Amino acid sequence: MSKKASLNFRFRYLTRTVLCLFAVCSPSLFGADAVLQRLPAALLVPGGAAVVPTASDAIRGEYKGERVLLARFEGEQYAIIGIPLSAKPGLQTFTLDNRAGETETLGFSIADKAYTEQRLTIKNQRQVNPNETDMTRIQAESAEMKAAFRSWDEALVPTFSMIPPVDGVRSSSFGLKRFFNGEPRAPHSGMDIAADEGTPIVAPAAGRILATGNYFFNGNTIILDHGHGLISLYCHMNTIDVEVGRQVIAGEQIGRVGQTGRVTGPHLHWSVNLNNTRIDPALFLAD
């Protein structure tokens, strides 16, 4: 693509592009017909989220093979897209299908972000270098969670404005480059909130309990589906106080803080997933 063509492409699709920190959808409309009541701006970076204006007849979007949430705000339609930590700076593209069966390619540009390092000491060496039996369990659990993160529930109303899930102190932020006992591991895919063991954990937004279980790394875990590809994860809990399939509202208790799984102390690990992409939970918290 020539420099001029690239600039024209960016002008057409990016001049009106903003990032979604939090928005609220109408309880009566879904998918491409969902109506956002707020559309604040944020940063276009790996681990962030983009809101891109689209044609009004778009009915389905895909980004990196994953379905994208479509919604309306002040009479215009937007694609709300989670940006993976692995995304490279520069142009990102996604596709939209319209009611006529046509496919259009749109784009948005992201900047680089330098996430800091975090070095942790884990006493249980198996939590750093699992044995063969552990790996069999880990692989099965990973498959379960991957399937859950790809859930797309049309009946649930997503909201991008959340309350903190626990009263505590943020101990680790999203995106940290992590080292366990000096060995590099995957970046931190959520927010850690330190709190005393037994502190209540609440749903930050309404949704349906999609899965619960005890996992090798995550310990006692809840996966909460907010609808249309917006899913949240809660790990290392002491107790799980809800069952799969239960509908919960914002502020309703779902469990208590613990230190199960791979931990250095009691805390809640909270992740938010949009279009099967882990993004910074801080984007969803109101001021």
Automatic annotation (TrEMBL):
Q: Where is the M23ase beta-sheet core domain?
A: 187-281
Q: Where is the Peptidase family M23 N-terminal domain?
A: 45-113
Entry-linked InterPro entries? Cell_wall_metabolism_enzyme, Dup_hybrid_motif, M23ase_b-sheet_dom, Peptidase_M23_N
Signal sequence interval, chain numbering: 1-31
Mind listing the GO molecular function terms for this protein?
metalloendopeptidase activity
Q: Which Pfam families match?
A: Peptidase_M23, Peptidase_M23_N
Q: Which UniProt keywords apply?
A: Signal
Q: What protein am I looking at?
A: Peptidase M23
The source organism is OM182 bacterium BACL3 MAG-120531-bin86
Its ancestry begins with: Bacteria, Pseudomonadati, Pseudomonadota, Gammaproteobacteria, OMG group
